[in-house]
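Hi P.,

Sorry for the delay on this. The queue was packed all week, but I finally got your sequence through. Input first:
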Amino acid sequence: MRTVWSRLTRSRDEAEADELQRELIEPGGSSICMCQPGQQVSISGTVRSVTLRPREQTPALEVELYDGTGSVSVIWMGRRRILGIAPGRRMTVWGRLTCTADERRIFNPRYELKPATA
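Then the structure:
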C-alpha cells in the first residue's frame, strides 16, 4: 500500500527520473550517482544540453548527460559539433570519470547514440 501511495504522490520530475533509470541502466553500466572519481565507467543517459566552449586555440563540445540519478559533463576537446548529438537524444558513453568539488566530467569518451524516440 505504501508504494502505491508514494507512486501517486511523487512529482512529475521524480516519476520521469525513475522511468529514465529503468530504461537506461544497461548490463555492465553504472548510474551516475554510484560512479567514483578515476573509475572507468559506462553511462547511459539523455542529453540535456549541448554547449560549444570556444577556447583560444582548441574548441570543446560539452554535453550534459542525465540518467535520473545525476548528471555528468561529457567533453570532447577539439570538436565543434558531433552529428546526432542534440538535447533529448539518448546515448551511452565510456570513459574515465574525473571529479571536481562540484562537477563530474568525462573527457573524449567513446560513445554510442541510441535510436531517437518518437
